[in-house]
Design a protein that fits this description.
By secondary structure, the chain is an alpha+beta fold. It has helices spanning 3-16, 24-29, 33-45, 61-66, 72-83, 108-121, 145-151, 164-176, 215-233, 248-260, 263-274; strands at residues 68-69, 91-98, 127-131, 138-142, 154-158, 189-195, 202-209. The longest helix is centred in the C-terminal third of the chain and has 19 residues, at 215-233.
Length: 294
């Protein structure tokens, strides 16, 4: 499974046995359910494990708009971006194709309304970063939906008539390869609507910086974008979904609090023990020489 699935299983098991802290790595390392059960049993026999405090909402719309500390993951990406500002390595891109027969791409007007809805619902899509000059610490703030839309999220392009899927995918790849301005830039996501005037087909490409999204989030965005576009195409209002009770800034605050109270030291100790004796460089067969610098 993936690390996200392992974390979900670990959290569920931990709640089931009275709040025991189970490292996700323990789930990934267990090859069978029996092995996992034995490992959890060993943790129980080893004495109580400190349970992490629950993740709760500690930020407000006002505090998020003013600026709150970035998470450890975001801070790392800000630092990496400073080293290679023109690199698209942390762009997370996905694309949906429409053949023009069984399925046609959404119209630009409906798509823009759907994007307004998404940006309003998900503050992460409105995240912008700055760096505190005195400390060098990165800060995240949440802009207004209007500011994001005024900055430009949606672009449209018509490929050469009859270019078909190859031309549509080429347009999507070119858009995905454009870097974001991570510090000071807004927005950190964009949508490209590429169409083939000869076939009526198209491609809808969604690209965002990894500092504000991940693979699981992309799947959620696609599901909600499809639901909203579908409703608008039928002349209906966008669906009413459950209100979001947590923001990513709440997780960032929770994570930094775990650093302050020493909780993450347990994870660091685990990985130091697990990786003790690992080779400093893993020599894998490659089809080209390893570069002198990464």
């Amino acid at each position: 499974g993936t690390s996200l699935q392992a974390a979900a299983v670990a959290a569920s098991l931990g709640r089931a046995v009275g709040g025991l802290h189970i490292p996700p790595a323990l789930v990934l390392s267990a090859s069978t359910a029996a092995a996992l059960a034995a490992a959890v049993h060993g943790l129980l026999l080893g004495g109580p494990s400190p349970a992490c405090p629950p993740l709760v909402a500690t930020t407000t719309p006002a505090s998020r708009a003013a600026g709150v500390p970035a998470s450890l993951n975001q801070a790392q990406m800000v630092a990496l971006h400073a080293l290679a500002p023109d690199s698209p390595a942390y762009n997370v891109a996905s694309v949906a194709l429409f053949d023009g027969v069984a399925a046609r791409p959404p119209g630009a007007a409906a798509l823009e309304r759907a994007l307004v809805w998404l940006a309003t619902r998900h503050g992460s899509l409105r995240t912008q970063f700055s760096v505190v000059e005195a400390t060098g610490a990165p800060v995240q703030s949440i802009a207004s939906p209007q500011a994001v839309l005024e900055a430009g999220v949606l672009s449209a392009v018509a490929v050469a008539p009859g270019g078909g899927e190859a031309a549509l995918l080429a347009a999507a790849r070119a858009d995905a390869a454009r870097p974001f301005q991570l510090v000071g830039g807004l927005p950190l996501f964009r949508v490209l609507l590429a169409t083939d005037p000869a076939t009526g087909g198209g491609a809808l490409a969604l690209t965002a910086h990894h500092a504000i999204t991940d693979g699981a989030s992309q799947g959620l965005l696609w599901a909600e974008l499809g639901a909203v576009c579908g409703a608008l195409a039928r002349g209906a209002s966008p669906p009413i979904l459950p209100k979001l009770t947590l923001a990513y800034a709440d997780f960032a605050a929770w994570q930094l609090a775990r650093v302050a109270d020493g909780s993450l030291a347990l994870h660091l100790a685990y990985w130091k023990e697990t990786l003790a004796g690992a080779p400093p460089l893993l020599e894998l067969p490659t089809d080209r020489p390893r570069p002198a610098t990464p």
